[in-house]
Amino acid sequence: MSDTPKFEVIDRRKIKAEEEHEHAQKQPEPAAAPTEAPAGPRLVVPESAAEPAAKKQENAALDEEASPEMPEAPSAEESRQQKSAYDASAQRLEDLVRAQNPGVGPQPPVGFEHLIQQLYLSAMIQMGAGAQEGQRPRVDIMGARQTIDMLGVLAEKTKGNLNELEDRTLQTALFDVRMAFLELTNMISMQGVQPPLPPPTKR
């Protein structure tokens, strides 16, 4: 038997690889990524912007159903028949009035000047004209403004479609009621300002 010692060669690379494999098996698996958004500022979308397009179309359709629709304009034949019936009814009424009041003559046809006169008188009465003597005039200044504005709209919409007499009548009436309105509002403003109180006297 030989006394020479025997040596055993060990491959450390193999052992190290086995240790790393065992260590990897013992470590827990990494947690899944959170599904919630990380903390910090985030974009807030309003409900109106976030609602789907189909929902918006449905709401728009409901709004259209809820809104009142303009009725269809009458046909030319319907307008002609209605005008004929109206004229016949007005003539019967006039005949009844003349039968009860024989002295009343036939009413003249209504023209453009009658419309101007009606609006002119309405505005002046609303500004206190026509009050009986001794009575305080009743003033509807906001109603007068609306009636004057109606005359203004009438002048604007009929521009170029009136003859010389109609245009002069309209412009004169509009000038007069606007002037009366200015005078009345200035008077109201003057009355609304209270004079300063005198200083208290020392006793």
Report on this model:
The chain has 203 residues and is mainly alpha-helical. It has a domain at 111-130 and 138-191. The chain contains seven helices and no strands. Helix 5 (112-126) runs antiparallel to helix 6, helix 5 (112-126) runs parallel beside helix 7 (164-192) and helix 6 (141-157) runs antiparallel to helix 7 (164-192). The protein starts with 11 loop residues before the first helix and ends in an 11-residue tail after the last helix.
Radius of gyration from the alpha-carbon trace, in angstroms: 47 Å
Distance between the termini: 149 Å
What fraction of residues sit in β-strands?
under 5%
Low-confidence stretches: 193-197
Tally of helical segments: 7
Largest sheet: none
Chain-averaged pLDDT: 77
The secondary-structure element order is: HHHHHHH
Q: How does the helix and strand content classify structurally?
A: mainly alpha
Query: Level of helix content?
Result: 55-70%
Beta strand count: 0
Which descriptor suits the 3D outline? elongated
